[in-house]
TrEMBL record:
<feature type="domain" description="BON">
    <location>
        <begin position="170"/>
        <end position="238"/>
    </location>
</feature>
<dbReference type="InterPro" id="IPR051686">
    <property type="entry name" value="Lipoprotein_DolP"/>
</dbReference>
<protein>
    <submittedName>
        <fullName>Osmotically-inducible protein OsmY, contains BON domain</fullName>
    </submittedName>
</protein>
<dbReference type="InterPro" id="IPR007055">
    <property type="entry name" value="BON_dom"/>
</dbReference>
<dbReference type="Pfam" id="PF04972">
    <property type="entry name" value="BON"/>
</dbReference>
Length: 238
């Protein structure tokens, strides 16, 4: 429930959540009353903490607009050009994007892109990756972000990819996007994992060969934008 003091309410909610380590990874929460905006800044432990922080903040913010400037900790040191090139290489190698024009920089659609064609432009600055463009399905938009999170050195993603034509989101669509991500993780056998989504809450069932792979499957789900929570019922076989 939203509080009359959203900053205090958000800070209390973050403190209570066991997956958010504010003592090691403090998050600064501030309220710009002139613009009725709540700003969250800091470095967080992982993608799970990032997503949960934003969900909790939304629940307590009331009518205030959220401005997020949160980075995931990374020990990989790469230049902006190296990170940008790796994202372009990764997205260009994805079979689902074979008809998507992918480029780098910040000049909008790549040259010679047809008006109706899908396109993605990648830029990087200080370990933050910016994705802009136009695609025809939510799964494309979600997959682009998830694949970018996999790239070492990525600490933040600003996903500005537009959807044309508009598509209504649904649990089935989110489930399909999660399935695409799990299928692309070389450490997993996605055929052995069942995904159920209800009101953006994900339940994973099935079997994997190790505790590490069980954790990886849940983390992959959190990398898909739109996931609100993940219940991991996957069993470790053998």
């Amino acid at each position: 429930m939203a509080s009359n003091d959203p900053v205090t309410a958000i800070e209390a909610a973050l403190e209570r959540n066991p997956d958010i380590n504010l003592h090691q990874f403090p998050v600064e929460v501030s309220h710009d009353s002139r613009n009725d905006a709540i700003r969250l800044e800091g470095t967080v432990e992982d993608i799970i903490a990032l997503r949960k922080i934003m969900e909790l903040a939304k629940a307590e913010a009331g009518t205030a607009r959220l401005v997020e400037d949160l980075h995931i900790q990374t020990s990989v040191d790469v230049t902006d050009d190296q990170l940008q090139d790796k994202v372009v290489e990764t997205l260009s190698g994805e079979r689902l994007f074979r008809d998507v024009r992918i480029g780098s920089g910040s000049e909008g659609a790549p040259a010679s892109t047809a008006p109706e064609a899908d396109w993605i432009v990648v830029s990087a600055s200080g370990s933050s990756v910016h994705l802009e463009g136009r695609v025809h399905s939510l799964s494309h938009r979600r997959l682009a972000e998830a694949l970018t999170w996999w790239i070492p050195g990525t600490s933040r993603i600003e996903n500005r990819i537009q959807l044309e034509p508009a598509e209504e989101d649904s649990d089935d669509e989110l489930s399909d996007a999660i399935g695409l991500v799990l299928e692309r993780d070389p450490s997993l056998d996605a055929s052995q994992i069942q995904v159920t989504v209800k009101d953006k809450a994900v339940v994973l069932e099935g079997g994997v060969t190790s505790d590490v792979n069980r954790t990886i499957a849940a983390r992959d789900c959190w990398m898909v934008p739109g996931v609100h929570c993940v219940e991991n019922r996957i069993q470790v076989l053998g």
